[in-house]
Structure prediction request, 263 residues.
Amino acid sequence: MAFCSIINSLLLISFLTTIQKDLKTNEKFIVEPQWQLVWNDEFDYPDIELDKQWNSQNGPSGHILCSRWRENVIVKDGFLFLKNKKENRGGQDWTSGSIWTKELFFYGRFECRYKYAGATGTNNSFWIMTTGIVPDSGKKFEIDINEGHYPSEMNTNLHNWTDITVDPLTGKQKHHSEHKSFDLSSTYGDLSSEFHTYGLTWTKDSLIFSFDGKIMRRMKNEFCHSPAPVYLSEAIINWAGEVTDSIDGTSMVVDWVRVYQPK
Prediction:
């Protein structure tokens, strides 16, 4: 057992050393040999099998403009579609889809290759959140690896959902959050026309966000220290651009999701 502990410690040191190299040089992050694939979904199966690995929302979403349903989540031809429809259901004028893994994950490298729905007003998201989970360590958190807004905006967010305060004047709840947005139009143009890979390296000490392997943002990890599921979701919201009938029939399209951990 002592020998195994020494080996594991050496591997962890190697893993963190590689991350520090990336932080210092701002080189592209590449999945190198010290990573091993521990979980993935390539969506290469019949639609009904999605429910083996994923939970689905089935109901209204009070904070956004759409309710979300399993029927809007479609696996077809090796892709996952989160489809937007203009239809009144669940007391809302739009419907879409949101799913999250049945398995919980803790630290590692998280990647998703997808393209945005081709309309403003859509929020195309890949994220990790401790919804309904009381952390053994740290706080309740949300890491938005990307909340993508058509045509070319990448948004990364970090939320602390434990330390909530209430404004005595308005009665509104507040929580600590950190946001950083990237306009990728000059280099990549329309992010609904081609697939791109959005990634997060999550360790005890840091959060590193990436786009197609390029490091976009680095943060100190101060409170994300508990296992959580991975989410894929589409939402219709006013702050993602004008909401129009052009949203109807569009989809966030996912090629694959992969989770790596150090060997």
Remarks:
- The chain has a mean pLDDT of 89.
- Helices lie at 2-25, 185-188.
- The longest strand covers residues 251-262.
- The two ends are 17 Å apart (CA to CA).
